[in-house]
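User: I've been trying to design a sequence by hand for this structure and keep getting stuck. Would you show me what you'd pick, starting by listing the structure so we're on the same page?

Assistant: Good idea, let's start from the same input. This is the structure you sent:
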């Protein structure tokens, strides 16, 4: 078996909205040579759109609403960067993306510290023991004291912290960043400019710094940096990889500060592909036979071709273009004719791939999230969640002659994980469920752009949706028959109980002890 997988670094970037995640993504791609020019996220004009935000609604709102995959080479390593949605409404897609990575960069705004979405995403990483690197962004603006930010990470997230790059001043006093590990001062050749100058130092007391930084900024920085090095634990690779310690890098993605130390840390210290847990056993990346799982499906990435691409994380074996793999759910062999690597919506044919890589499989609706592909073994990778939706609406179609297009759109978007679609046991109108209100806007926007349909919504009297199951099929049937007005079925015909309030759900649960009401389920 080839050890090629050891050169792979597959990581995600997680953050609260507006912490600067998309800008950081761009700068990492620029540093890695994957793009020639980084475009500010909110800049007008197609030539300077954020490369990882390719959907029309993303470009208009300046946010990421789908998970993009970008592959690039850096310092002899293949980096697979998964840019997750920062918007709180897109947690389901984000959670699934985090099942496909081996480490993560957590981006924190220096002024705001740890925000709610950051905390939620961190907890998902903790559940999976994903190592975290912390990038404290926007130090070129006024922000919190560096110790305050470090202590908040330590206390709020129960993590040990190790400072790796320290700010030299902050806000209007910002003069650059000091790499505490390599003793390199990163600064700019022009006042307030972006990073373009690197100065090797003998240490924090190097006299070169006295000539470059005003004493009123330099002396407090020296004192604080020395205190930080002495007061926080030293970097420990094992502790970091086990998810107990996070290295902290202060920088400014917008002005290119600390991008190099960040990507250098990833290629040197972030873990290579780890074993993947299947229902029957743990799958090692060094195994000879190919295996992988689908964590995302994206419809209409190329609006001219109505395509559908499934994103597969390879877990083991040496993948070759044209090979046949067994789709475990259906038992059918599928030939991998045109697998692809991604740079956002740009793509190239993947002739071969190794564990840790993410490849795209073009298909016509036959592949879904949660599917496992192998060279024959009936594996089922675990840990891909489906969440009960928190917002429910009845779908209304502006033009009733376009019912076929509506059905096609709902099926595609449900397969993608953007929405969940339910068919009532009584009545004919579809109900859609989402985990966040913005997804309804995206559904309407993409319905119009990609399927030429006008979608609107009506409220329904239900707040909660729970999958129902029971060990005894007779008891389950009796429950479904007795509650037909509250029952809908998902796209796989699983029964779902809709309740008007938490009180109604609790009451129904107590009255039916043999029935399980599930908020989450493993994808089949």
């Amino acid at each position: 078996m080839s050890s090629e997988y050891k050169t792979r670094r597959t990581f995600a970037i997680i953050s609260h909205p507006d912490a600067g995640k998309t800008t950081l993504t761009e700068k990492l791609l620029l540093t890695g040579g994957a793009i020639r020019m980084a475009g500010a996220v909110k800049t007008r004009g197609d030539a300077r759109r954020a490369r990882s935000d390719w959907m029309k609604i993303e470009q208009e709102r300046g946010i990421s609403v789908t998970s993009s995959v970008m592959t690039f080479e850096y310092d002899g390593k293949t980096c697979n960067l998964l840019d997750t949605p920062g918007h709180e409404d897109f947690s389901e897609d984000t959670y699934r993306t985090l099942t496909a990575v081996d480490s993560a960069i957590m981006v924190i705004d220096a002024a705001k510290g740890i925000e709610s979405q950051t905390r939620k995403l961190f907890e998902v990483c903790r559940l999976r023991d994903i190592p975290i690197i912390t990038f404290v962004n926007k130090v070129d603006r006024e922000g919190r004291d560096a110790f305050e930010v470090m202590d908040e990470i330590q206390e709020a997230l129960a993590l040990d912290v190790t400072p790796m790059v320290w700010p030299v001043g902050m806000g209007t006093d910002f003069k650059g960043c000091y790499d505490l590990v390599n003793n390199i001062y990163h600064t700019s050749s022009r006042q307030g400019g972006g990073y373009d100058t690197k100065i090797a130092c003998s240490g924090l007391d190097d006299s070169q710094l006295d000539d470059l930084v005003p004493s009123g900024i330099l002396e407090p920085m020296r004192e604080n940096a020395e205190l930080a090095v002495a007061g926080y634990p030293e970097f420990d690779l094992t502790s970091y990889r086990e998810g107990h310690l996070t290295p902290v890098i202060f920088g400014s993605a917008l002005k290119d500060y600390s991008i190099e130390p960040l990507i250098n840390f990833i290629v040197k210290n972030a873990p290579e592909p780890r074993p993947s847990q299947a229902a029957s056993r743990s799958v090692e990346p060094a195994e000879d036979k190919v295996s992988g799982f689908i964590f995302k499906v994206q419809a209409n990435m190329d609006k001219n071709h109505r395509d559908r691409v499934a994103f597969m994380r390879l877990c083991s074996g040496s993948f070759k273009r044209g090979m046949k793999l067994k789709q475990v759910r259906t038992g059918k062999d599928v030939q991998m004719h045109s697998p692809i690597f991604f740079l956002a919506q740009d793509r190239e044919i993947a002739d071969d791939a190794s564990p840790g890589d993410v490849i795209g499989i073009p298909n016509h609706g036959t592949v879904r999230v949660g599917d496992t592909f192998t060279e024959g073994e009936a594996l089922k990778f675990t840990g891909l969640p489906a969440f009960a939706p928190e917002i429910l609406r009845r779908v209304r179609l502006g033009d009733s002659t376009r019912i076929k297009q509506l059905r096609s759109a709902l099926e595609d978007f449900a397969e993608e994980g953007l929405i969940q679609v339910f068919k009532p046991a009584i009545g004919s109108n579809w109900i859609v469920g989402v985990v966040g209100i913005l997804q309804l806007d995206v559904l309407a926007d993409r319905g119009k752009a990609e399927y030429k349909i006008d979608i609107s919504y009506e409220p329904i009297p239900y707040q909660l949706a729970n999958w129902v199951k029971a060990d005894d099929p007779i008891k389950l049937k009796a429950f479904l028959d007795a509650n037909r007005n509250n029952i809908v079925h998902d796209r796989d015909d699983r029964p779902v109980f809709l309740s008007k309030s938490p009180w109604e759900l609790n009451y129904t649960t107590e009255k039916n002890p043999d029935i399980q009401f599930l908020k989450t389920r493993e994808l089949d």
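That's my pick for every position. To get oriented when you compare it with your attempt: The domain at 4-69+104-269 is CATH 3.40.50.300 (Rossmann fold). Residues 187 and 402 are 59 Å apart (CA to CA).
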